Amino acid sequence: MQNMTKYALKESLKRLMLKKSLDRITINDLTSDCGISRMTFYYHFRDIYDLAEWACLEESRKALQGKKTYDTWQEGLVQIFEAVYENKTLVQNACHAIGREKIENYLFKLTHDLIMGVVQEQSAELSITEEQKNFIADFYKYSLVGILLDWISRGMKDDYQAMTDNICTTLHGCIANSIHNYTDQGK
């Protein structure tokens, strides 16, 4: 039941953001649209920005489900771009209302998790420290998030499929090579 309410609030937020910006939406707008009380809203979220952040994380979690392996990370990357594009209004409103830093942090976590899944899988039998694994995931996350943020700031007009193809071509073999560079360094 709790999750149903949270998802209903997320859908209400998305509907309302088609009509007005995030900073113009009130708790009353959301609760009226959902047919719940204000107290029920506050049981789940601190404020509208908390709901917006959770909605973004939830959309991305769905997009990445099962896509954190060497064979599927490229699909996961495409799905991140698709999720952002499909929720264009929500993302652009969130960027303006919440601020670029919060969106960056959200995207950093998302892409770090994506890359870390690949790093963990590829380094399973190798001698590489957790610190080194995290550094590799961080290194690639900054690149991916930078490209994603540029695309968002340009209004998401560029073909994200072509962009993700270019990213995948550029990164092909790089993560595995980074892992092997660390294991070779330790010998």
Task: Describe the protein.
The chain starts with a helix and ends with a helix. It is mostly helical and 187 residues long. The protein is elongated. The chain has ten helices and no strands.
What is the topological layout?
Blueprint (H helix, E strand, L loop, with lengths): L1 H16 L9 H8 L3 H7 L3 H17 L8 H14 L1 H11 L1 H23 L7 H24 L6 H12 L2 H12 L2
Helix pairs in contact: 1-2, 1-4, 4-5, 4-6, 4-7, 5-9, 6-7, 7-8, 8-10
Q: What is the string of helix and strand elements?
A: HHHHHHHHHH
Poorly predicted ranges: none
Oligomer: single chain
Helix content: over 70%
Please report the total strand number as a whole number: 0
Short description:
The protein is mainly α.
Record keyword descriptors for this entry.
single chain; mainly alpha; elongated
